[in-house]
Amino acid sequence: MAKAEKPEEFAAPDVLESQPCPICSANALTLTESEREIPFFGKVYLFSMTCTACKYHKADLEAAETKDPCKYSIEIKGKDDLNIRIVKSAEAVVKIPHMMTIESGPSSQGYITNVEGLLMRVKGVLESAKENAEDAGEQDQARKHLKKLNRVLWGEDLLKIIIEDPTGNSAIISQKAQKSRLK
Ligand SMILES: [Zn+2]
After folding, report:
1. What spacing in Å lies between the alpha carbon of 16 and ligand 1's midpoint?
2. Domain edge (last residue) among 35, 65, 95
3. Does one domain contain both 76 and 38?
4. Are the C-beta atoms of residues 142 and 130 closer than 8 Å to each other?
C-alpha cells in the first residue's frame, strides 16, 4: 500500500491533550501548535484549542517575525483572484464594504486561507443571517448580498476586501494588494 505523503508545509503539530479548559474547567482541552512557512510572508506559528466537553474552539496564528500594524486592501476582479492567499489573525478585522464587517474578539479565529475560502466563510454568515432574519427587509438584504457574492465567486462581479490588523499578523499576499500602515 502506498504511504500517504504529508505535504511539507503541513508539518505534524505538537499536541497536548487533556488540558484544563478555560471555559468549562474540564480536563478535555486539546492544544496544538505547528509552524508553517508562507511565501512572501515568513514563518507562522499556528495555535488551536479545542474542548471536547463544551465544544469551545479557538484558533489563532502569529508571525515569527514582529510586524507593524497593517491594513491591506484588494479588489477581487476575477476567478484568478480567488486563489490569492490570505493570512488572518484573530485580532484582524475583515471589511467588505457595503456587505459585512467581521470583527475581532474572543470568538474570532485566526486562519490561513485564500480569497475563495474567506468568501465561503462570509457566505456561511450571510446564509445563517438569511435564515434567522427577523424581518423581510433583513432577509432581503442577506439575499442581495448572497447574490453578489455568488457572482464574485463565478468571476462575474467585483468585490473589495480590506483587512486591518493592529498586531500586523495578517496579510493579503498579492502584488495587487495595497498595503499601508494601520493608523
Ligand atoms: Zn470546555
Report:
1. 15
2. 65
3. no
4. yes
